[in-house]
Design a protein that fits this description.
alpha+beta, five-stranded antiparallel β-sheet, two-stranded parallel ribbon, 9 helices, 7 strands, elongated
């Protein structure tokens, strides 16, 4: 027994001593832990930003939907203003109307302008078509050519029959009326900048051969071929308040493409604002007719870009 104990004491010094991490290993482990914590924090930030973006997008989508519903209500109000007619039974409906609507979910203000203030590509006389082309930037020669192209699209079977002879009947020419102002770009040889610039002057829904000359923009009046200078000057004096309406009509009486008629279509600009501060601006063209079973029809609708507001 004593011998065995001595043997154990003899080899006790050979047993390995426990090892502890060195300073360098402890530093490496600490750095690794810190990197893991930084990565987790980064993921948390990314997740928070993503969730904030999702919440913002949802809120914007809700605001856009609410603004569109208010705009629809504004269109109904616009049609109501037209159907209500003039405030005085002895007066005709003005060519510009305004209105507004306030609700707990937001407000909408609107301006209606009758399409008789514009030149109808489908029905207007050639001087007006030529005038808007020149006002949009076309040269005199090009504007004459383009106006002929536009009028040619309006040719119908009745016009084709005028050229028939017993031996050589003329084939009817198919009419291609403009369904949208943007189709002006499809006219042969139409420059892109002219197609864009003409948008402010024209319509496709007034159904009138003329327009309200007294409301035409000055740059358009200057470009209408054959329009007497005295008429242009008279319109200018009328706008300045130096000429009354009766005197103005005397100057306009001989201009066959001037009309006092109202078109059944109206262009409506709607400015919508929500309690959140979100704003949207829309432009619509509506048709309001006493013979229509519907209170109004939407002919065109678009959201105006922010830079166009």
């Amino acid at each position: 027994m004593r011998k065995h104990m001595r043997t154990n004491e003899r080899y006790r010094g050979w047993l390995p001593l426990p090892r502890f991490p060195t300073d360098s290993r402890r530093g490496a482990i600490l750095v690794g832990v810190l990197w893991v914590m930084i990565f987790i924090a980064f993921l948390a930030v990314v997740l928070r930003l993503h969730m904030s973006s999702v919440v913002t997008n949802v809120r914007v989508t809700e605001d856009k939907a609410a603004a569109r519903m208010l705009a629809d209500a504004g269109l109904a109000l616009a049609a109501g203003l037209v159907r209500a007619g003039a405030s005085d039974a002895n007066e005709t409906l003005p060519d510009t109307l305004t209105g507004s609507l306030e609700t707990s979910s937001g407000s909408v203000s609107l301006i209606l302008k009758n399409e008789a203030l514009r030149v109808d590509l489908n029905t207007a006389q050639k001087p007006l078509i030529t005038g808007v082309l020149r006002a949009a930037g076309a040269s005199n020669g090009l504007s004459d050519k383009l106006s002929d192209e536009i009028l040619d699209r309006r040719a119908d079977e009745e016009e084709a029959k005028e050229g028939e002879t017993p031996t050589a009947p003329r084939q009817p020419k198919e009419a291609h009326p403009f369904r949208s102002v943007h189709e002006i770009a499809l006219v042969r040889d139409m420059p892109e900048d002219v197609a864009v610039g003409i948008d402010r002057y024209v319509t496709v829904s007034s159904g009138l051969e003329g327009m309200h000359m007294e409301e035409a923009e000055p740059e358009l009046l200057e470009k209408i071929p054959g329009l007497p200078r005295s008429v242009v000057q008279a319109i200018g004096r009328y706008r300045e308040g130096r000429l009354d309406e009766t005197e103005l009509q005397q100057f306009l009486s001989d201009i066959e493409y001037n009309t006092a008629d109202l078109a059944p279509s109206w262009r409506v600009e709607l400015d919508v604002e929500l309690p959140s501060g979100h704003r949207e601006t829309y432009e619509a063209t509506i048709m309001v007719s006493a013979d229509d079973e519907l209170p109004y029809r939407v002919l065109d609708w678009r959201r105006l870009a922010d830079d166009a507001k």
